[in-house]
Amino acid sequence: MSAGARPALARFARSAPRVAVLAVAALALAACGGGTEKTESPSATPSASADGGGKPAAFPVTVAHKYGSTTIDKEPKTIVTLGLSDQDAVLALGVKPAGAVDWFKEKPYGKWPWTKDKWGSTQPEIVGERDEYNIEKIAALKPDLVIAQYSGMKKEQYDTLSKFTKVVAQPKDHPDYGAPWQTMTQQIGKALGKDAEATKLISDIDARFKAVRAKHPEWATKTLAVADSFEAGKYSAFTKTDPKSIFFQELGFKLKPEIDTLAKPGFNVADLSAEKLNVLDVDRLVWVTSSTEANDRIKAEPLYKKLKVSQEKRDLFVPYQGPDIGAAFSFNTVLSIPYAIEEIEPLLTAVK
Fold it and tell me: Whole-angstrom Cα distance, residue 277 to residue 236?
């Protein structure tokens, strides 16, 4: 992973620079023809329910989101996902997106062990990175539906895309990059007319978490924090709305609210100096790192060595990839969570 990609991972919830997309709207419309996007109030009619067999619901379906609601008249055939991890839920529901955004230049298709079989030999068109979308590439794919759940899509981008396709933006009532994986999965299921299948996926994952909590009731008494560091003297801790923290909370651990107070508004991460490392003195501290060099550097920090979590070896250094444990709970999707649980449980139980 490049040096530029890893810092981006820690900060993907931050507001991306506004992308000037209106300039390409005319080209997009020419490529696809005018769309019939219907934007209504958030209280619009809910989507039609699926039958008990998990078959697609009768269309039209209406999905509420941050910018109103979108009515999808018929089952979409060509899907483009613009959320960083949206492709996982779409794949889990049996659909291969024609286009997707890059996960910090790591290629979201076929790389991770939890999606390799789902993608097979298919490779989606990469139509952007983070919240910077290439409208021309999206338009060229002539999508029936664009999904942007785990995203920071701007209203300007939504309006431009809506001129030639249906768009389901990020969930309402949650900050950008802050909706629970259950909510995003359900939204995607509604948009694809697969309500029942999405509900079953969510139920199965919830059962996995419940089983782990029952197996390790002691975790409910432990505080946990997730952190990383990309250079000497600079550290980051993830807030309660970050997927990594959400994952460990669902395993049963308690999070430390002080971390949330240190984060800037709209950010899922709090930047820490060495002098602020005391906020990480918790019962279990999980470092998501990219190299043994980073691990050694953190352990050598004099102020870190003073923390009880370090002295009592209650800290855990988890690789982002190779194996892809950190990547799995960074995604925190219906596809990656089972892999993450399987890999992290023995590591956590080994910490006394």
Answer: 9
